[in-house]
Specification:
Structural class: alpha+beta
CATH architecture: Roll
Number of helices: 6
Order of helices and strands: HHHEEHHEEEEHE
Distance between the termini: 45 Å
Number of domains: 1
């Protein structure tokens, strides 16, 4: 106790005031920050498993039904570049067979990098960059595109879903894309 007293005593000898301050304010605050990071990290892992991994997999494989499944029925899709705002039915409108046939020979790949991830109380907001690469399987032609996304998610029946998905090119390049943090 003597050592503890010396540690908290200041020039005026106000041990109790300093002791109370450190043990009721400072130390609990540090633990709560640590807990918040741990909780947020746990939510990010849930979101990765329930949304982003299936999103990437279904996008890359062309699994339309699987891709729809990671979105809320209340989804709002915003494309700033084309100045469009779409609801679920418009966003997932069946693609005509002629267009499907044209794109069938293209292999798609999407990668995501994050610059901001906030999650709490069944809601999440995520910002990042995407990189799409499409390769024509008949001649090897490759097309690469980049953009920035903002996504709002919510938990529905204990599963994370995309509620709002917005993206724009915003002069995103490979160098800009690389500044984002890969999904863990």
């Amino acid at each position: 106790m003597v050592t503890l007293y010396r540690l908290y005593r200041d020039k005026t000898g106000k041990f109790l005031k300093k002791f109370i301050w450190h043990n009721t304010i400072v130390i609990p605050a540090l633990f709560s920050v640590q807990f918040a990071y741990a909780q947020s990290d746990s939510l990010q892992k849930q979101i990765n498993e329930q949304v982003w991994k299936p999103f990437i997999s279904t996008f890359n494989s062309g699994d339309d039904e699987g891709f729809k499944a990671v979105h809320s029925k209340d989804v709002i899709r915003v494309s700033q570049d084309s100045k469009q705002i779409l609801g679920y039915d418009q966003y997932f409108k069946k693609m005509p067979d002629s267009i499907k046939a044209k794109w069938h020979k293209w292999k798609k790949n999407i990668e995501l990098r994050f610059i901001q991830r906030i999650a709490a109380n069944g809601k999440a907001f995520e910002v990042g960059y995407y990189k799409t690469k499409s390769t024509d399987t008949t001649n090897g032609e490759t097309r690469t595109g980049f953009g920035k996304f903002h996504v709002l998610l919510r938990k529905e029946n204990n599963t994370w879903k995309i509620l709002m998905d917005e993206d724009a090119n915003e002069n995103t390049t490979e160098a800009v894309f690389q500044t984002g943090k890969p999904m863990e």
